[in-house]
Structure formats: C-alpha cells, structure tokens
Amino acid sequence: MNQPVPVPVPVPGAAADDPTPGGLALVRRPGPRLTQGLVTHGERVPVDLDRAHAQWEEYVAALLTHGWPVHEVDPADDCPDAVFVEDTVVVHRGVALLTRPGAPSRRPEPAATEEAVAGLGLDIRRTEAPATLEGGDVLKVGNILYVGVGGRTNDEGVAQLRDTFAPLGATVIGVPVRRVLHLKSAVTALPDGTVIGHPPLVDHPELFPRFLPVPEPSGAHVVLLGGGNLLMAASAPRTAELFAGLGLHPVVVDIGEFEKLEGCVTCLSVRLRGAPA
To answer: Global pTM?
Structure first.
C-alpha cells in the first residue's frame, strides 16, 4: 500500500529562491574525455559521448525556453568532469566564491569559470588550501546555505564559505554527507523552501525544518526556473507526478548519460539570478 505523502507548507524565513525568468545560466559543454569522469558511489557504466552531447543540448534548450539565457564557460577538455560546472563556483548576493575541488583532477576547472564570472562583474573570492569545496555541496534556501561536508568538501571549506557569505547575511549550516557524492546529490529544495530527498540517500533529514520524501533517487534534484517550473530528470516520473499534484510544473529532460557519472540537473549549470543577459 502506498504511504500518504505529506504536503509541503512554507517555512517562515526559509523560502527558496523561485526566480522569474531573466536570470542567466553558466554552462560548459561536455569535453572529449567525459567518458573518463569520476565515479565515487556505484559501479562504472559506459557513457555514450554522442548521446551525452545531445542530452546537454536538450538541457540548454530547456533553460532557454524558460527564460534563462546561457553563457558558455570556456572548455576544460583535459578535465573529464568539467561539464559539471556547478562545482566550480558558489554565487550569492553578487559574490562569486571560486571553489577548490576535493578531487585533485578537477582543480584546474575553476580557472575558466573565474574568467566568466569576472566578465559578468561579480565580486570574486577564492577558496584557499587546505580547504576543499565543491558547489554541488551547497544548497541555498533563501539566506540559509546548507553545506555538505565529509566527501568533496571539508571543514575548512565550510569555514571559508561562512567567512565569505556570513557578512552578507547568510547562515551557513554544515550537513554530514556519507551516502552520496554531494549534498545536492541527496537533496534540493522546492520554491517554498521545502527540502526534498530520497530517504535512503539522506543522512540527516532532521536538519531541515521541512522535509518531503520523494520516491526516486533522481527525484531529489530540481532546478528552480521560476513560476513554479522545476527542471528535473526524466528518470523520476513518479516524483514528477507528485510535484504536479502539488501545483508545480515539471520540465523534464533526459540526462541519463550524466547520471552514469553521478551527475544531476543541478550540476550542469550555475544559475545567476538577476544577472545580465
């Protein structure tokens, strides 16, 4: 028998940003070494590079269709995981904190991202050793920044993130991550601030004021496009149905080749709210 699903309600002071169209998304197209990307949790499965390129184009088209112009970050073809551009920078209130990836093979990736955000006029800061920080570990819910720690991001990375954004009014909360690659591999948030996740992959759901379980692992990953539109993976049809029942509007894309590399819809872009087109 199906268990009743709790209906999310707004959490005072903790609404996620649900942007209106008109922001900008940073993307980076898949490189020739994508098939050699890192796999940390789970078994390696062959990746079809041509299909990955087609899926990336579909992803970009969905952003464009829903009012998000894209800015391509220069390629980093020597880095197999460079398409997952979200891991290279955390942006909040006009400040761009360049990361220092926990995987050494990914350390060159933020350089081109720095050029891109500098060109957009953002205030640039940098994560310094011995800190490690990857953007996929940072979930923003209003002025709360949840940061996964224990995998690709360490305690010093959390401390430097806090030093950067606390003066801007952000509250930074560390969240232990053991079962998945990044925090946002386990949880993201709906427009009202409700955190969503697939319970077997969430280490500490009690850390979130409001938590909604979803029936599929990839259903935990949404990108807020504005107006209740949620960009999400085609591999989570039951979760899409759940969200539609809540009055939200799933925008479904097939990213199966990137899921083989532990990627999800959030990993493939950095959304800059209110940025110039």
So the answer is: 0.91
